[in-house]
Amino acid sequence: MIVIGITGTLGAGKGTLVEYLTNEKGFVHYSVRSYLIHEIERRGLIPNRDTMTQIANELRAQHSPAFIIEELYAEAIKQEKNAVIESIRTPGEIDFLKKQGKFILVAVDADPEIRYKRISLRASETDHISYETFLSNEKREFTTTDPNKQNLSKCISMADIVINNNQNVEALYQAFNKVVREKGIQL
Fold first, then answer.
1. Residue 15 lies in a domain
2. How many domains is the chain built from?
3. CA end-to-end distance (rounded Å), the chain
4. 83-86 β-sheet, strand order
5. Distance (Å, rounded) from C-alpha 179 to C-alpha 185?
6. Is residue 159, in this structure, part of any structural domain at all?
7. Which residues pair with 165 in a beta bridge?
8. DSSP state of 149
9. Looking at residue 138, which CATH number applies to its domain?
10. Is residue 59 part of a domain?
């Protein structure tokens, strides 16, 4: 069983890479976002980016910096199939997964203007924000010294594979496959 963790910036193409891994490579998808939305709805709260960040930080502070990922990983182990876990947000989550073995962390990034256009087009509940709010959210999530809060900068620096996704979907797939081949990874 291989576990691929996906980290990266908002709108960079993490979900697109997950779709490729599930549809083309047969991976089973485990989503932090889905986990959090379920928890938010269970509590009777409104699912938006701020609430997701608040609940994720709260769960990590109450349990461990890797709590959500530990929960998703436990589900993946039961399936005994290759898994992709989206979206890794803290170094503690990465540390936990690396200790489990057969783990590859992929980071996806793109220029902010391109990413903002992408989230505007997908228009999910949590994506109805201004460009200024988009940048502000990213700044909040990009670096911290609190192990229970998001630190995308550190997560990206810990990645085994980093893909700059400023082009189209096919270029993303090609870049991913090229790096996987170069590293001798069998999917």
1. yes
2. 1
3. 10
4. 28-31, 83-86, 3-8, 103-109, 161-164
5. 9
6. yes
7. none
8. S
9. 3.40.50.300
10. yes
Write b or e for each residue in 74-103: b if 16 or more Cβ atoms lie within 10 A of its Cβ, otherwise e. Answer: eebeeeeebbbbbbbbbbbbbebbbeeeeb
- The tokens describing 149, both together, are 């809060």
Single out the residue of 112, 86, 136 nearest to residue 10, CA to CA: 112
Q: How many residues does the chain have?
A: 187
In terms of residue numbers, what domain contains 58?
A: 3-179
What's this model's pTM, rounded to 2 decimal places?
Answer: 0.91
* Residue with token string 């992929």: 106
Closest Cα to residue 107, out of 184, 28, 4? 4
Query: In this structure, what token pair is assigned to residue 71?
Result: 């929960």
Q: Which alpha helices (DSSP H) does the chain contain, by range?
A: 14-25, 32-42, 49-62, 67-79, 91-100, 112-122, 131-142, 152-157, 169-182
In a domain, 184, yes or no: no
pLDDT by residue for the chain (187 residues), tens only, comes to 999 999 999 899 999 999 999 999 999 999 999 999 999 999 999 988 889 999 999 999 999 999 999 999 999 999 999 999 999 999 999 999 999 989 999 999 999 999 999 988 886 656 678 899 888 888 888 888 889 888 999 999 999 999 999 999 999 999 999 999 999 888 8
